[in-house]
Design brief:
Largest sheet of chain B: none
Number of helices of chain B: 10
Strand content of chain A: 15-25%
Structural class of chain B: mainly alpha
Number of helices of chain A: 16
Structural class of chain A: alpha+beta
Order of helices and strands of chain B: HHHHHHHHHH
Radius of gyration of chain A: 26 Å
Helix content of chain A: 25-40%
Largest sheet of chain A: 7 strands, mixed
Helix content of chain B: 55-70%
Distance between the termini of chain B: 14 Å
CATH superfamily of chain B: MetI-like
Number of domains of chain B: 1
Shape of chain B: elongated
Largest interface: A-B, 29 and 24 residues
Strand content of chain B: under 5%
Oligomer: heterodimer
Chain lengths: ~550, ~270
């Protein structure tokens, strides 16, 4: 072999190696559904939110680990005393992924688009606390003030969801300021993200972030396939693992799974208190009784639910805020004890009598009701069966009915043709303002009795007052005091019977360096810029 | 062959007897949750171990078999009777009746069952007891499952119309009802029986799938179908082999019954 041929071979080997090296530096995980939108302002589903998180540049970012806001594109910010104006100072010399410069005009453009009522932006809805226009004043190329018609409590936190768009780029929303940009998309198959060449963030050594060159998000709804691919090392991350899958993976490799403790998510049940619901009047009377609701709550063994249904990867819930929500959780709330004798005493106060294993009300009606839940969710079906057994111990007969999800939603929001429902609540935001739709009695999604013209009970009126007070206050401690009181009322009246807080269970391949599982979404890739892949990882390429 | 049939019949009888008698014994409580022993392996206290909620698998298998063996064949009988009435009779009669039956069969086969079943679920009160719910489910399956066998029966009956033995029988002045019972029915029996035996396991599995619509067996009542659904989560044959007991039970009962009654199918 002469020198020229040898050089050629070396060159070819080098090219092949470099090509492989590029493919090696690719993070892969699954989206469980097709992303509905790549426009960051119209994101309304989990998959679109994943793409937005990985590609969108925001002014402020909530640190998922510390739960504190940190500056991103804005180097600093101030909120006026009246809570109506927020002023941002922007970082200089930042460019979108297509090279367009980032200025205060882009922030103005983004806010104008976001607040455009024709866009129907779910993100924009969070800023709409009253009628009136949101106005932006550009104070310079790197300074902007945003004025709101009314005070917005927790205003800064809302900017964690606002990905800035370019006002000049011909690529429109595909020009991004985040660590990655969408390079390729095959509907039904995958979204391919490449490293943003103009990303502004540097590590402590001055190297441009992110470390990983590409992220491949494959669309895959089958959890078993996700588990199999993860255990084979073909994908590196899984968010939201079920307890069964967690334990299955744990037996294969304990280092791959992480239990970050109680998440913000709840499993809860409630009894139908809608006055016009097509259920017998005597049942409505039971469900409207505080003693009845509290008795049901006391008769359920939450420790067993955690142990049996979630294999220990859950905590008994005490109220409407998870302990994972460090600031807003009311630590004075007492855990609800499993005490069936106390439950019977409460029921006796309302005239219920237990005889021959059957509970009857004072008019002789046998206490029996149905719990509906969505079919196909094994954990929820098991929970309902355990609740059925627990309530049977105090003489209450429960029929468990599983329905397809659309039918269930129809029943609980339109027809109100149900007696009790068991469902989960996924909490994404920490701030109680995000729960206004749950607590206000006039809300369409007030679970147990929605769309009330006037509050049906004094305690609901009090919750309305407290929620409005916290939403209009700029003092965080005062807001906390108001919301603590809401939590106490809810714990006392038990309109929602909180069962468990599921733990945040994730899968992270040992080949991913720098990953730290947290309870807030996205649990595994919240610090995506700082993640690295070990070189020895097997890869299938794009 | 005769010995095999006798053995199969004996086995089928024993299994049916065990499921009925065993499920009546108070020792075998299918709903009691032993929360200290969830998903446990077979032991003297729990012969087939316990399920994910700590319920005795053996007790649930006995009760589930009883429920399914009582209701699935009943639904299959309903289905076959309808298939005979709507398929064979008009097929043999010919003319307008045959055309109307064909239209009805095509119509039923083209109806999306899912929506029909959703309507049924919407009409049922939520407080239907588990026993009533499962009975209604099998009844619905029986009422909807006749169309496919009816089409085959119609074709077979039509082909028999001009058969020599039928012409001969007619020439003797036999009454139509007697002709149907003495000559047509025996010739259609193999088809009917074949469909009957196909329908039984299909109905058992369909009932399990219907639980997604809120039909089917409600907790805590077991059925063979709901027990078979648990196999979705089996991790490995090697470690959890006892979890396949419902499948073994289903195969044993259906195949032994099929062997036991196979005499009639063998042409002399």
């Amino acid at each position: 072999m002469n020198r020229r041929s040898f050089s050629l071979v070396v060159c070819l080997v080098l090219i092949a190696f470099l090509n492989t090296a590029v493919c090696l530096d690719e993070l892969r995980f699954y989206l469980r559904s097709e992303p509905k939108s790549f426009n960051p302002l119209t994101v309304a589903d989990d998959s679109s939110e994943t793409v937005r998180y990985l590609t969108g540049g925001v002014l402020l970012r909530l640190n998922r680990e510390t739960q504190k806001l940190q500056p991103e594109l804005a180097s600093s910010w101030t909120v006026s005393k009246d809570g109506r104006t927020i002023t941002f100072v922007l970082r200089p010399s930042i460019f979108f992924s297509d090279g367009t410069p980032f200025t205060a005009q882009d922030v103005k453009y983004t806010m104008d688009q976001l607040m455009n009522p024709e866009l129907h932006s779910p993100t924009g809805d969070s800023f709409r606390t009253s009628n009136g226009k949101v106005e932006c004043t550009v104070l310079g190329p790197d300074k902007i003030a945003i004025h709101f018609p009314a005070p917005v409590a927790g205003l800064e936190g809302l900017f964690d969801q606002v990905a800035i768009l370019s006002s000049q780029s011909p690529k429109k929303e595909m020009a991004v300021l985040g660590p990655y940009y969408v390079s390729d998309y095959k509907p039904g198959s995958f979204v391919y993200l490449r490293k943003n060449p103009n990303y502004w963030k540097r590590d402590s050594w001055g190297r441009q972030l992110p470390y990983i060159s590409a992220v491949k998000l494959e669309v895959q709804s089958n959890r078993d396939i996700e588990l199999m691919k993860f255990s084979r090392g073909e994908i590196q991350l899984i968010n939201d693992l079920d307890a069964d899958y967690f334990d299955r993976l744990s037996t294969l490799s304990p280092a791959m799974v992480h239990d970050a403790g109680a998440s913000l998510d709840f499993e809860q049940m409630w009894l139908n208190q809608v006055q016009t619901a097509p259920i017998p009047a005597y049942k409505r009377q039971w469900f409207s009784s505080r003693n009845f609701r509290r008795a049901i709550s006391s008769a359920i063994n939450r420790d067993d639910l955690c142990k049996v249904v979630y294999n220990g990867h859950a905590r008994p819930a005490v109220g409407p805020v998870s302990p994972a929500n460090k600031f807003w959780f009311n630590s004075h709330l007492q855990a609800i004890p499993f005490d069936q004798k106390a439950a019977l005493r409460l029921l006796q106060q309302d005239g219920f009598q237990l005889a021959a294993g059957k509970l009857r009300d004072r008019d002789g009606h046998v206490v029996e009701f149905s719990i509906v839940t969505n079919a196909g969710n094994r954990a929820r079906e098991r929970t309902a069966t355990m609740v059925q057994q627990d309530l049977r111990s105090i003489g209450i007969a429960v029929n468990v009915v599983t329905l397809d999800f659309p039918s269930l939603i129809q029943r609980i929001t339109q027809d109100f043709n149900y007696e009790a429902v068991l469902l989960g609540l996924v909490n994404v935001e920490l701030d109680p303002n995000e729960q206004m739709n749950v607590w206000l009695s006039s809300s369409e999604t007030h679970p147990w009795n929605p769309k009330q013209k006037v509050p049906a009970t004094p305690w609901e009126a009090e919750i309305d007052r407290l929620m409005r007070a916290q939403a209009s206050s700029m003092d965080e401690q005062a807001r906390k005091k108001y919301f603590d009181k809401v939590q106490e009322i809810v714990a006392d009246q038990a309109p929602l019977i909180y069962l468990v807080n599921k733990n945040a269970l994730t899968g992270i391949s040992p080949s991913v360096e720098g990953a730290k599982s947290v309870v807030l979404r996205p649990q595994t890739y919240w610090n995506i810029e700082y993640l690295k892949l070990a070189v020895e990882r097997a890869s299938n390429g794009k | 062959m005769k010995r095999l049939r006798v053995a199969a019949a004996t086995l089928a009888c024993v299994l049916v007897f065990l499921s009925v008698a065993g499920s009546l014994a108070p020792r075998f409580d299918y709903s009691r949750q032993d929360r200290e022993h969830i998903g446990s392996a077979p032991s003297p206290g729990h012969w087939l171990g316990t399920d994910d909620l700590g319920r005795d698998r053996f007790a649930r298998l006995l009760h589930g078999t009883r429920v399914s063996l009582l209701l699935a064949p009943a639904a299959a009988v309903v289905s076959m009777l309808l298939a005979f009435a709507i398929g064979a009779v008009p097929g043999f009669a010919g003319g307008f009746a045959e055309r109307a039956a064909k239209t009805a069969i095509d119509l039923v086969l083209s109806i999306p069952w899912l929506f029909l079943l959703l309507i049924v679920r919407a009409m049922l009160p939520l407080n239907t007891s588990p026993g009533t719910s499962v009975t209604i489910t099998f009844l619905v399956l029986g009422l909807l499952g006749w169309a496919a066998p009816a089409r085959i029966l119609l074709a077979r009956a039509r082909s028999m119309r001009q058969a020599e033995f039928i012409i001969l029988a007619r020439s003797t002045g036999i009454a139509p009802y007697r002709l149907l019972c003495r000559h047509v029915m025996p010739n259609l029996r193999p088809v009917l029986l074949a469909h009957f035996w196909i329908s039984v396991p299909i109905f058992i599995l369909s009932e399990a799938n219907l639980s997604i619509l809120g039909l089917g067996v409600a907790e805590p009542l077991p059925s063979l179908g709901s027990l078979l659904r648990e196999l979705e989560t089996v991790l490995s044959l090697r470690t959890d082999i006892w979890r396949f007991a419902p499948l073994v039970m289903l195969v044993m009962i259906v195949s032994s019954l099929q062997i036991a009654v196979s005499k009639q199918e063998v042409p002399s």
